[in-house]
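anyone seen this seq b4? input:
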Amino acid sequence: MDYLLKTEPSEYSFADLQREQTTNWDGVSNPVALKHLREMKPGDRLVIYHTGEEKSAVGTAS
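predicted toks r here
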């Protein structure tokens, strides 16, 4: 399954994820977003989207 993960690049960018290789996607309070985070499984495709001024998909992860 594919998921869209939105992040403010000044707080946590795609470059941060590339460097760390793994992370906890915390700070999410929206109940629907939390439901989807819990449903994610290893191997799911993730599209990383930068919010703020950039407003674009910047990479993928799994």
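The helical segments are 14-20, 31-39. The longest strand covers residues 2-7. kinda curious what u guys think
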